[in-house]
């Protein structure tokens, strides 16, 4: 198609089961402006990575349409993740529209930090479900954890609340940092103020699977000495504070 925006893609997972409902193709966008200390995908950070794939919405959605039978049988679809999809807004919007023209359900997995002054409404209007990653509730600890100002993601959550788009909140639980009851209550209070009606809140246990990427990229360990989150403890917090 003429005059299509192009986008930078890190990779595609064709049969994802954890990023939204049903069986999903997960498209990982290249580029992120946050530096979350628990990030397991530091290889998606660089916004100008010459090694990544460049594609168009038409070509991408044609490729994803091969899995449509799996999507429709399982109630799944496509999830745009990253990196941060909001940093490529024109490409993302065109992909969302192309999915809808093809009858494919769309999820946006985001930390809610796009470009300055970005209008999120057109993207939210084409998104069937937002997986919104809430990193922290305290402004100072949010900055220490991500390197950014919490006001940026709150601008997105304001837009999300106004849009009425269904939301699943996701929050990574880190041992020794956010795995206690006081943290869970603080998260509840933060959501009550900023995003009062998520369909669900998923607690995700911090894991160590990305550590080797930091080593390979010559980066220091961002959370030295912090073990993986105990899955049973995380499940108990889920049950006690955010039952599914
Ligand atoms: S927003 Fe996601 S991709 Fe970006 S640094 Fe945080 S965890 Fe990593």
Describe this structure in words.
The chain is an alpha/beta fold and about 240 residues long. It has one domain (about 5-240): Aldolase class I (TIM Barrel), CATH 3.20.20. The protein is built from nine helices and eight strands. It has helices at about 55-65, 70-75, 90-100, 120-125, 140-145, 150-165, 180-195, 210-215, 230-240, and strands at about 5-15, 25-30, 55, 75-80, 105-110, 130-135, 165-175, 200-205. The chain has an eight-stranded mixed β-sheet with strand order 3-1-2-4-5-6-7-8. β7 (about 165-175), α7 and β8 (about 200-205) form a beta-alpha-beta unit. α1 (about 55-65) crosses α3. The protein is globular. The model has no long low-confidence stretch (mean pLDDT about 95). Iron/sulfur cluster binds near residues 32, 35, 41 and 82.
What are the main properties of this structure?
eight-stranded mixed sheet, 244 residues, alpha/beta, 9 helices, binds iron/sulfur cluster, TIM Barrel
Topology of this structure?
Layout: E1 7-16, E2 24-29, E3 53-55, H1 57-64, H2 68-74, E4 77-81, H3 89-101, E5 106-110, H4 121-125, E6 129-133, H5 139-146, H6 150-163, E7 167-173, H7 181-194, E8 200-205, H8 211-216, H9 231-241
The protein binds iron/sulfur cluster.
